[in-house]
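Technical note accompanying the year-one report. For the benefit of new consortium partners, we illustrate the data format agreed upon in the data management plan: each record pairs a sequence with a structure-token string. No post-processing was applied to the example shown here.
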Amino acid sequence: MRSRLNKRRTRRKSSVKSFKSGNLSPLLKLLGVVFGALAALALLAFGIMFVLEAFFKIDTPLSSSGLLGKLAGRINTPLIETPSPAPTAEPTPTPHPMADFDPVSAQHELILPGELNFPWLADPYYHGGKVICSAGRLVDGRVKHDKLIECDITSALHTGAVRELDIKPVCDHLLFPVFNEKWLVYFDANYSFGGGEIRYIDLSKAPYAPRTVKTVYVGQPEIKLDGDIIAWIERTGSEREKIFLCDLSTEETAVVEYFDNQSSGTSMPYLHDGRLVWASSASIGDSSVKSLDIATGSVSEFRPGMLVHDPEYNGQYYAWLDSPHGENARLYISDGVSGSAQIAEGAVEFRLDEQSVVYSKDEALYMYMLSTGETYRLTAQNEAAQLLGVSGNSFVFWMDVTSRERDIIKFMALPLSEAHRALLAAEQEDQTEATPRADNNGN
């Protein structure tokens, strides 16, 4: 019996010894170490999460339904659970601001009441919610603009109150009216042989008492107004033109530059925001664009390397034509530093405002956006239009020449301008007020 037990013990020792000395022994030892390390790390992780949940109130993946979660919940109730991540919402694309622009619905007509029977209108100018334009009738088979009409523009861009200004011509025609809060300036032109008088009215004094700034003997200059200052170009000899400035508060007049038989003598100056801009001949077929700061008297110069006609400047960009309003005239812009860029060919007239260049081409009006370089048509496809002007960076005016039975002046708020945004806001407010509201009973 004892010998059998000894034999069994001997066999067990020999089998254990042979297993320990076998080929699998190192691998099993390594696995044991690895599993032990993983178990220790798991215990450490659960311990750290438990401490964070229970004592520091920091959210962890620890489940509140588990043993450790319940224990932590007793210490720090309620247990914070990690929320399920929600997918990020895709932003709604912003529509292009001109995507819904409709030239037909955006335009409005300047309408006079029936008792003011003036079929011929010209030279509209907008400021401060009002438009002043020339008006006239046929006299001896010729149009005579001998009236100035003032029209209020309502918030919906309809013609409001209309009145005839108590201003009588000294000569024949009342042309090119411009005005601001203090001054009204116009050209009183001779009917038959040209020339006339540049006249102004101090609007702060009643009744109106027109005064003459200067008598003009040749041509009919278009006046520019900025604050107390007016500017114009005038032919003073058979081959000489001069650019004038006048301070209406003192009636002091100065000549800025004169031209002897030069193409620049047919180019109009531009006056805006205390700065006078004009084209000056640099060489044959080449011009320089000069800019005068009226307050300081300093003059700067920009040479685009081509002929410049009727330059304008908005404080950042210059715009000009490369010939005097010909069928092949090209329209350019430049910041005065990085060269010039052509934006249109065949442009007849143009006006530069703070954010765009409005121009007429092929009896249609277009708007070139300075910020994006995009061009949009402003007038309807079946409408023939002639640009009359842009006033106050707010409104563009044109003559509808589809039919010439009478003068039809139309206007619109410049798309993307402050006036356009105000109009859209007013329309939205009107729609909100017109929407019926439910009473307390849900009716």
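Partners are asked to follow this layout when depositing records. The chain has a mean pLDDT of 83.
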